[in-house]
Design a protein that fits this description.
The chain has 247 residues and is α+β, with helices and mostly antiparallel strands. It has two domains: 5-123, Alpha-Beta Plaits; 131-245, Alpha-Beta Plaits (2-Layer Sandwich), CATH 3.30.70. The chain contains five helices and twelve strands. The radius of gyration is 18 Å and the shape is globular. GO terms for molecular function: hydrolase activity, acting on ester bonds. This is CRISPR-associated endoribonuclease Cas6.
Amino acid sequence: MYKIARIAIFMKSINNRMPKEKNMLAVSLIKEILNKVSEDFTKETFFYTESRSNKKIKDINSSIYISNFVDSDEDLIVKGDIILNISFYNDSMYYYLYNGALKLKSFNFKGYEFEINSISINKEKFIKSNEVVFKTMSPIVIKNKKGIYLDCNSKEYIESLNYIADLTLKTIRGYGLQEKLEFMPLNFKKKVLKEKIRDFKEREYYYINAHTGTFSLKGNIEDLNALYKTGIGYRRTQNSGMVEVLR
């Protein structure tokens, strides 16, 4: 069964500012949304214990879009809408995300204040061919088994992409890839993400190689439709891996 929708949450910054590192903002906002329906479900999804986060693969994919902003020294000066886009595979996740989003009216993240203005449900496309061209809505992050973030020209890239795609589908829908994926970068450019991590002591920011733009993916039609919903690569809940069908 294919769900045909994804959720878009439209927000405004109360003080017209937001942090540059949007990955943890996305995670925090999603937790707030889920908490509005069930705190137990949020804990089951994100935590091993009260204080220890888990790294299990989640049926949540996100991207944050800012319609108009200026990059200042410390943060972003936002002059337009902020949109959190969320996609998912299973009906149960849709229930928690949609109903939680309806109940959430405002949101605070590390002193940045936001108000929720509206929610829309956007129809997804259905992939009918074994080859699709995707464009990124949030950066694609691929790493190897040693934890090294890869450039798309690396010989390990397609193997590592297949590995995480197979594991993602196996975790979320119960079985992995039915055919090996073939990947071809088109207008696919490197983008370095940075984030502050509490336990990272070497420097202020932790840097992550990622890519944005367009790429071709060939494989089983059912797998391609599932990946369209689940997102592609690592850190999918953290403003990464969301794609839209270009053709």
